[in-house]
Write a structure and sequence with these properties.
heterodimer; A: mainly beta; B: mainly beta; four-stranded antiparallel beta sheet; globular
């Protein structure tokens, strides 16, 4: 079975400051990793995903994440946040070859003007 | 493409009533997922289908919940009878699997269900 841990339930950050949202996962098999974003009153949409290859993955809206196999982490980063980045961010994992995705509990990013 | 379509967007009902949530996946997608999101339990997978066949319904809370996919372009999630603890946002998502798990899930806007 897989599990995802997002340690921070809320992260406040000032506009134009950098941010890191942490994600750790647990799995006995190889996995694919994802970050999704949910804006208020909307469904989730994909930010980025790691399947294989380079451990640094770039996504939409200037976000990037780094896969660290030894630390079983997949932290999300952005060098300079905007007000429009205020949303909830979900880390997710799925075993290779399966469609069932396990989501973390989410991290609410609050960008302060 | 219009994306994943869900209806209704909001539903308010009284305890004991039957509730039916509807979903139209993206055309050509062969996987369909139903999720429930609450403050207490976060995002939970209820059931998913592949080519209209239920693959895993282990997340369905109890017998009051049932889901069907009569064809590739339509699915329903039914709660009968509904209870206040069923109040949540229900999301439908679809993806194109083609036998791998590499594909992105596309979420609908959700149905906010309130059971009084």
């Amino acid at each position: 079975a897989q599990s995802v841990t997002q340690l921070d339930s809320q992260v406040p950050v000032f506009e134009e400051a950098p941010v890191e949202l942490r994600c750790n996962y647990s799995s006995s098999v190889s996995v694919y990793l994802f970050w999704y974003v949910q804006y208020p009153n909307q469904g989730l949409q994909l930010l980025l995903k790691y399947l294989s290859g380079s451990t640094l993955v770039k996504g939409i809206n200037g976000f990037e994440a780094e896969f660290n196999k030894s630390q079983t982490s997949f932290h999300l980063r952005k060098p300079s946040v905007h007000i429009s980045d205020t949303a909830e961010y979900f880390c997710a994992v799925t075993p290779r070859g399966y469609q069932k995705v396990t989501f973390g509990t989410g991290t609410k990013l609050q960008v302060i003007p | 493409d219009a994306g994943v379509i869900q209806s209704p967007r909001h539903e308010v009902t009284e305890m004991g009533q039957e509730v039916t949530l509807r979903c139209k996946p993206i055309s050509g997608h062969d996987y369909l997922f139903w999720y429930r999101q609450t403050m207490m339990r976060g995002l939970e997978l209820l059931i998913y289908f592949n080519n209209n066949v239920p693959i895993d319904d282990s997340g369905m809370p109890e017998d009051r919940f049932s889901a069907k996919m009569p064809n590739a372009s339509f699915s329903t999630l039914k709660i009968q009878p509904s209870e206040p603890r069923d109040s949540a946002v229900y999301f439908c998502a679809s993806s194109s699997g083609q036998g791998t798990s590499t594909d992105t899930q596309y979420f609908g806007p959700g149905t906010r269900l309130t059971v009084l």
